[in-house]
Amino acid sequence: MTEAERPSTVRLVLAWATVYLVWGSTYLGIRFAIESIPPFLMAGSRHLLAGLLLFSWSRLRQHTGSPTQTDWVRAAGLGVLMLVSANGATTWAEQLVPSGLTALIVATSALWLVLLNWLWLGAARPGARTVGGLVAGFGGVALLVVPGNFAGSEHVDIIGAVVLIGAALSWAVGSIYAIKLPRPTHPTLFVSQQMIVAGVVLLLIATLTGELHGFSFSDVSRTSATAYLYLAIFGSLISFSAYFWLIRHTTPDRLATISYVNPLVAVILGWALAGEPLSLRVLIAAAVILVAVGLITTGRMRPRT
Asked: What is the pTM of this model?
């Protein structure tokens, strides 16, 4: 990256603050939104709305040309990986798993990022410290899932946990794929294309799974409507744009540090605003997962020579 291409400190700080804090709050936002809006319908319409707004702004204000077929194909791949398979699955799983614990399990995307950094991008083989972090991270998730009375009887629904681990893997794959893609000519327009494709796919899933049957806008509560607008504007339009911008201006290891802050924000908000349980088991699992993320993201992952 040349000096002219290097982003300003202010832009970096704002982007990191957005993905750290705003994204951490979206887990609780999802929980409130799906109280009276079916999950795939909520996720799909949210991304489609944000995508259309961003697409229109990009075309009108930035005077961008029409996207090429190649642009749409690449955007579709990222949209399916990151917004359908990852975000859509996470939204569905929050029917079974509290928002704070959802964020903790999704934090395993940092573990997948490091593994894919090695297997796909050619970084050095993980050392003992990194391997220890990987083992500890998945061990922390296991502590949340395995039934029993250790440090509290509450445990996470196994189906929800498996879906969330798959969502974390899909997000990591999408992030690495985005790094490998050629730099788009119009990044903002490219982000909007991902949202539009994902929104259409998720709405199709909502239709096929019968979510539209019997749904009425009059049944949507004020809390869900407020959470929906927050997710569409801050969670999709602003936060996803900031994340995709950071993909182009930082490394996979630094991206993985998002997994330090998001779960803490989500757990605290879930406990404070939604009364989600904060048992000793949850606290121990959270500590194990976050320490694991710390181990793997501070390990040195040099490219192969």
From this structure: 0.84
